[in-house]
Amino acid sequence: MLEKVKGFNGDRVIEEFEALTKEAERVQRETLQRILEENGAAEYLQNLGLGGKTDPDSFKACVPLVTHKDLEPYIQKIADGDALPILTGRPIKSISLSSGTTQGKPKLVPFNEELEQSTMEIYRTSFAFRNRAHPIGNGKALQFIYSSKQFRTKGGLLATTATTNVYLSQAYKNTMKDIQSQCCSPEEVIFSLDYNQSLYCHLLCGLICSEEVQFVFSTFAHSIVHAFRTFELVWEDLCCDIREGVLSSRITIPSIRSAVSKLLRPNPQLADTIYSKCVSLSSWYGVIPELWPNAKYVYGIMTGSMEPYLSKLRHYAANLPLMSADYGSSEGWIGANIDPEEPPESATFTILPNIGYFEFIPLKERGQEQKVENCASIIGHREPEPIGLTEVNVGEEYEVIITTFAGLYRYRLGDVVKIAGFHNSTPKLQFVHRRNLILTVNIDKNTEKDLQLAVEEASKLLAVEKVEVLDFTSHVDMSTDPGHYVIFWELSSNAREEVLSNCCDCLDRAFIDAGYVGSRKVRAIGPLELRIVNSGTFHKILEHYVSLGAALSQFKTPRCVGLSNCSVLQILNSSVLKSIFSNAYC
Ligand code: AMP
């Protein structure tokens, strides 16, 4: 029997989900029809000659596959205040800024009520399944969530990150209440523009209601790790605030001071308990269950570029289950994690066939596919045709194409997914990596995932020394002849020269792509270079992105920094403590 939460009926949500996923093909047809009917008046669709047809074949025949770049002029027109139906039938009232960390610069994408609704549907669906596995009681959630700058476009539309657009909505507030996920911190903390002050207050509010906290959350796992790394530095100040009932002078924003001060009373007993728990921990192992004894799990996106933070997260969470959250983007949601018991490494996302129309470009063998992509214009090679949601094959990889209620039609999201199986007739996806190649000098092709695996392998050599890689990124240095890969590492403490040299060799050998190995052997690519950067470098990168309007909630460390991203490259290069070249392939 499912736990019934007031205002939320998990059985019903699951029943509806089962019905939708049993008839995925029909639901997809109907969803496409609705999208095209609702938006038929949009200039973009009008120009494509659909002539009112809403079936998948006509749609595919008339509407081209696009990237964000193709839609930019339309989105810009909307942002500039053109009130005509441009991409959607009804006017777009707000714009979302994607985090920009994956692409280098933020992209503008339309946000509307339908996107808000699908966000709530995803939240409710995954909660229904999560709550069946680990029912939570009445209480609160320790959420590390942050809004970002909000500004008005030339045409007066609200522009901010997608998460902020969601947090601002009434639907979000209602849903959080229904699924018992209300944040411990007052709104002023979430909406402050100083994320350092917000983070301190999230921790403080979480400690004040430590008995009530049912789970710990952030959108992307990076924010949880970041929060607890900060906790290690500020815990004594937090205890002091709780003991005295006076908020630290580091909180200077009047609205946060006043909202948080209202929650704070002198509580020496709680301060003593927290203090003694903290001093008894060894290297902060298990700090989350120790301080939040009623927490049932830790929740957030832990897949893709978040995987490198898993080991630290496990360290802080000890035996508390880690549950990976859903799959989506500023452009639209894709799937919910309905198997919360799966470890994050094998988390899958079941597509909700009613929230958008989904297509998939089959990818052949990984290296081959990317080579083809690069040469397509030269030899006139055509990519395989996208296939429908129910036509995908288990075990194969695809690029995701979405058509949304918010005006994106056959939009290449840029993500590669693998089909892990089916739930009824709708596929379950595993996130593989962003499609763009990140490291290439010659005929070599390495993706974000390849880099992640190489770093994982090499960092095992550091673990023996009790040193961790706190964060990493890469760069292709073509200023040398031949060009070479540069990997930047920020470490938790110093490591011996000899160990770093072994790590560097290991990184070089861990790129097993045939193009790389072959080029290294014939010296068409130079020895890999490992640059160790000083402590706080990746924090500076985060601050740089936040200053551009990104929200900490959506932050993803860029895993490759190109020459065009000169500010980040400058931060990295000005922080190098030492540089080591690989001796592999000598
Ligand atoms: P944003 O630019 O903040 O909208 O980020 C969207 C991107 O984040 C997606 O296109 C994915 O590359 C990544 N992402 C979102 N959800 C997940 C997930 N559950 N697992 C892995 N990557 C994800």
TrEMBL record:
Residues 449-561 form the GH3 C-terminal domain. GO terms for cellular component: cytoplasm. One of its GO terms (molecular function) is acid-amino acid ligase activity. InterPro entries: GH3, GH3_C, GH3_M. Residues 349-434 form the GH3 middle domain. Keywords: Ligase. Belongs to the IAA-amido conjugating enzyme family. This is Jasmonic acid-amido synthetase JAR1. It comes from Dendrobium nobile (Orchid).
